[in-house]
Amino acid sequence: MQQRYLLVAFIALLLIAPQLASEFHVTLLNYIGLYSIVAVGLVLLTGVGGLMSFGQAAFVGLGGYATAYLSTATELPGWAAFLGGSPWMGLLVGILLTAGVALLLGLLTLRLSGHYLPLGTIAWSISLYFLFGNLEFLGGHTGISGIPALTLFGLQMKDGRNFFYLIWAVVMVVVWLTLNLLDSREGRAIRALKGGVVMAEAMGVDTARSKVVIFLIAALFGCISGWLYAHLQRFVNPTPFSLYMSIEYLFMAVLGGAGHVWGALVGAGVITILKQWLQDWLPKLFGASGNFEMIVFGFLLVFVLQRARDGIWPILTRLIPQRASIRTVVAAEPLPTKALPDAGQVLLEANNVVKRFGGLVANNNMNLMVRAGEIMALIGPNGAGKSTMFNCVSGVDRATEGKVLFRGREVTSLDSREIAKLGMSRTFQHVRLLATMSVLENAAIGAHLRGSKAVLSSMLHLERAEEKRLLAEAARQVERVGLKDSMFEAAGSLALGQQRTLEIARALCADPCLLLLDEPAAGLRYLEKQALAELLRKLRGEGMGILLVEHDMDFVMGLADRVVVMEFGEKIAEGLPEEVQRNPAVIEAYLGGVE
Fold first, then answer.
1. Is 153 helix (H, G, I), strand (E, B) or coil?
2. Same domain, yes or no, for 245 and 183?
3. What one-character DSSP code corresponds to residue 159?
4. Which domain holds residue 440?
5. pLDDT (tens digit per residue) in 208-259
6. pTM attached to this predicted model
7. Which of 58, 74, 442, 449 has its CA 20 to 30 A from that of 295?
8. CB 331 within 8 A of CB 471
9. Which of 472, 493, 509 is the last residue of a domain?
10. Residues near 536 by Cβ (< 8 Å), separated by ≥ 6?
């Protein structure tokens, strides 16, 4: 409620600002708005998605030049004559052009990782900048002048005061669309990109698609900002679309708070005002002109990264008193579920699986079988290759040799996302949760495959009915594993044992028929282990197959129907728990030779 009042107050200030401020300050606010649009895209791309880009100014240029050329061109081919003279057609063409260029660049660039990705964006950013300056029909480095003013509802926007309302209306729409997107099934997939790609893929998220989506959205936001800029200035040249400006946009996103949408507006405001002040003051101080403000920005960014890595926005929100709110999950119609297979039906078969990492053989001719309605344990000393076997059967890693069959279908060459669609879900040896997201949202990632609403529906808030059902399912599974009281807490605040339990809830949200659990009892206290064992027995009774890796022998032997023992990547024993416990090879390898 407090945030709603602040939003109303902010909008009220925007409405009266042009009437109270001077022409200079209105112009400054216009530029803050234009920069905010681009910075919001960078928050989505870099702050949330973890994809660094130094090329956003080039997309601003595509939007600006598209409308500048079309609205001033006097000689267009006959088939394109209808595009000339209209700024609104310039916007449409700019969006289509930017989408096409961004899609091509995204498909090429987003395959890169680490420092290669930002280097790739620098390369095409510089290329597009020089392209703008070397094409004669775009005016070369002189640019294009005489761009017509916008006309909206019969009002010609020739001055900054009129343009102010259009710019800030677009800013608020961009913020609304972005917040809607992040608060959705697609938004959870996007947030999983930063530090959770392997997990997200195992839950059925197409992470490559999500990367391209946010790259396109950020590019289109830049295009719209460029279109507005061109008709505000009524003149464009390559200078505002250089790598220098791309770096400035990144400054804005990082300074305001790279993971926070509203932080983009704060960062744009601080950088724009500070830049104007420094440009006036520093030349007087040094007695010479130059881009001294960039030196200050560099030190400022280093300071922020050292002292306030999350930016200014989180600091501001901590200064605002928050009322305690009662959060609940709205009841919704249950999601459809798949019928579990008959007890005893073979779910998983691994035949002569070999996994090599260079010269290291992690799995050697491994064979195992899991049936519906049984719990099978995979045990062995540390380094025996158990987790590697998990990765091979779930598609995280691809087996070098051998076959993996799931419900009679060979899945050896399938990705983890495709295998998840078939009904296999898993947890991880090293917990893979999104620490800043709530317990409920982390669990809901597991239900990603059970939703169908896409990005546009999410941005327009048309997926609310489906979202309620997904969150209701996540809440049911969170309660099922005993984490109801922590449902709205950040997952990173949970104890390690509770985080492992949350991973099980997330896996159950996918509606699997086979559950792969990698050390699920690690870190749990005695009563928590008992509750986990009871849950697994219940799932087994419902017909689910369970394959688990675990080091707690008391837990395993009192729960598993069958046990497979590994050593040095090979199977050395298989059978009932009591048979395995008496096996001399197991006693020697796993229990250290002690009977």
1. coil
2. yes
3. S
4. 434-509
5. 999 999 999 999 999 999 999 999 999 999 999 999 899 999 989 999 998 8
6. 0.91
7. 58
8. no
9. 509
10. 375, 517, 546, 548, 559
- Asked which of 250, 271, 298 is the last residue of a domain, the reply is 250
The number of domains in the chain is: 3
- What's the CA gap between 225 and 214, in Å, rounded? 17
| Total Cβ atoms within 10 A of residue 309 | 12
pLDDT tens-digit readout, 18-34: 888 899 999 999 999 99
Cβ count within 10 A of residue 465: 10
Residues 169 and 217 in one domain: yes
Helix, strand, coil percentages for the chain (3-state, nearest 5): 60, 10, 30
- Give 358-393 as a DSSP string: TTEEEEEEEEEEEETT-EEEEE-STTSSHHHHHHHH
> Which residues have C-beta within 8 Å of that of residue 154, sequence separation ≥ 6?
none
Phi-psi map region of 423: left, alpha, beta (phi>0 left; psi -120 to 50 alpha): left
Among candidates 373, 484, 402, 372, which has minimal Cα distance to 439? 484
Q: Residue 373 in contact with residue 577, Cβ under 8 Å?
A: no
DSSP assignment, residue 338? P
Dist. CA 110–CA 212, nearest whole Å: 7
Strands 562-567, 375-379: pairing kind: parallel
Q: Which of 218, 188, 220 is nearest to 205 (CA)?
A: 188
Report the distance separating Cα 236 and Cα 148, nearest Å: 12
Closest CA to 163 of 20, 29, 13: 29
Residue type, position 437, single letter: M
